[in-house]
Amino acid sequence: MGLITKIAWRNIQRHKGKSLVIGSILFLGAFVMTIGNGVISGMDRGLQRNIVEGFTGDVVIVSDKQESDNVFLEMMGKAIEPINNYTAIKPVLQKLDYVDRFLPAGKNAVMFLSEQASNPSFTLPIGVDFEQYQKVFPNCLKPIEGRLLRPGERGVLVTTGARKEFYNFSGVWCIPESCTVNYANMDKDARADSVGLTIKDNLVFMGMGSDNATTDVRVGVKGIVRYRALELIFGHFSIIDIESFRECLGYVSAAERAVEVPQETKDLLSADESSLDAMFGSDAISTGVSSAEKTAPMPAAAPATEGQPASPKKVDVDAGAYNVIMTFFKDDVNLDKGLKRLNQDLKDAKTGARAVTWKKAFGAIGSMAVLIKAALFLFVMFLFFVAIIIIVNTLSMAALERTNEIGMMRAVGARKGFITAMFSGETAMLSFVFGGMGIVAGFLVIAAIPLFHITTDNDMLQLLYGGESFTPLLSAMDIGLAIAQLTLVTLVAMVYPAYVARSITPLDAISRD
Q: Sign of dihedral through CA atoms 34, 38, 39, 44?
């Protein structure tokens, strides 16, 4: 082994030009590969962080009657099954020590109605109690125009993406209440059509459902907003107050649950058929008034305070219907194990609900990180494939140019295995030195990039970045992958040149002279 190493090192020094060419290719390939792995890992982590922390939570709880796991991007606007017993589910989640926080919400497709449009457009609002929303997803929305919803306030926060869709389908450009048109934020097509443009600060939504219980609701636009990151993905989901959402979809609202039904009405609703028949018997019909009724005094009405109307009863917003519950696990909880435990706890408590991971809840978007990661990985491997071809060609030419040297070695007794080991040793040395330098250089670049705080508002770049900031990441697994890729390239690149070298005979050396 020592002899092979000495000869390999001597040959590298004797053929410095070709060694530098091969080494440079290995350095560049290892450098690009390391950078690519860092970008892929940073994008993957960024997408997961921004989707989980900005929109879905770790898992999404739905009704056990819900058939599809893809609850956020269900095709053809299929309605999500409502959760009508959140008040029973909430205490169960509060007792689980591995659950950090959670937010109930309504999500279903609705139609945007406008007298200016012959056909309605569709949108996907998320109904929430906005005060709870900000606690669970803090600083996820940035107001572009207007303001955010106040606690208990009714209204809608329209995303920039949804506003553009409303214009494209209905010719309506929406602005917040008490605001004027901001032409700087206007879409270029809308700006060109500004003379005949329809401006609205309130919108009419009508729910879509198979039970025909939906209705239309007019809500005021309180603000135009953008999500902190990935607006291209989240821009379809405007934020609406939960009570307006329930009324729009025909769900039981908290206000309706708070209404007290008189005892007479309860008795009537609970009466059986014989009792109802008795109500219409001859004895039950009377046109006179008894003497007791004549002499009975009327109950005194409670005095009203002048100028002070009775305050409405406080409504428990959790008493109404929801569709999803976005749930976060604590940091030390494994996603798969936490999902399994949560589903078991929900089943044991007979809540009629189940949980799915954020990737399944977001359908194809949840797999986008995997798809982009695979695409970038294939791109890096394509670069290495090109590098392999160049290295193979260079090593093969070097072997042919050294026909005399190799032929003489064969003439004095060197076997084919020795020639193969010699070429393999040379390639391995070049790969170790120059490839290792490329990996180290790539690691230093990846470590330095976050220091520059590179950010973007471009929606397409945010998909590549995994969010609004470019923060590539190299883990120990990524470095191990880079070493494995470099090893694979080295092994593949040395096969054909070694075959060419071991095929040289002493006769080839004599014939070349």
A: positive
Cα(360)–Cα(52) distance, integer angstroms: 12
Separation CA 129–CA 193 (nearest Å):
36
Nearest by Cα to 492 from 379, 375, 397, 390: 390
Burial class of residue 360, CB neighbours in 10 A (0-12, 13-18, 19+) = middle
Q: Which runs of consecutive H residues, i.e. helices, occur in 103-148?
A: 130-136
Helix (H) or strand (E) holding 292: helix 291-295
Going through 33-87 in order, the beta strands assigned E by DSSP cover 59-63
Strands 110-113 and 202-207: what pairing? antiparallel
Question: In whole angstroms, what is the distance from residue 223 CA to residue 235 CA?
Answer: 14
- Give per-residue burial for 467-482: e unless 16+ CB within 10 Å, then b: bbbbbbbbeeebbebb
Of 74, 236, 103, the residue nearest 168 (C-alpha): 236
For 63-119, write each residue's pLDDT tens digit.
999 988 888 876 555 788 999 999 999 999 999 999 999 999 999 888 888 776 666
Beta bridge partners of 159: 225
Taking only Cα atoms into account, the Rg of the chain, rounded to an integer number of angstroms, comes to 36
Instruction: Give the integer Cα–Cα distance in Å for 511 and 204.
Output: 91
On the 0-12 / 13-18 / 19+ scale of CB atoms within 10 A, 420 is middle
pLDDT tens by residue, 252-286: 666 665 555 455 654 554 555 555 555 555 554 44
Tokens at residue 487, please? 């090893």
Say if residue 51 is exposed, middle or buried (CB neighbours under 10 Å; 0-12, 13-18, 19+): buried
Q: What are phi and psi of 146, to 5 degrees?
A: 75, -140
What sign does the dihedral 90-92-95-96 (CA atoms) show? negative
Sign for the CA dihedral angle at 73, 76, 81, 87 comes to: positive
Give me the count of residues in the chain. Answer: 513
And the tokens for 497? 């040149």
Per DSSP bridges, beta strands 126-128 and 99-107 are antiparallel
Place of tokens 């939504």: 205
pLDDT for the residue numbered 129: 95
Cβ(21)–Cβ(12) under 8 Å? no
Residue numbers in the chain where pLDDT is lower than 50: 261, 266, 269, 284-312
Q: Which residues pair with 207 in a beta bridge?
A: 110
Q: Does this model's pTM top 0.85?
A: no
- Which run of H or of E encompasses 447? helix 436-448
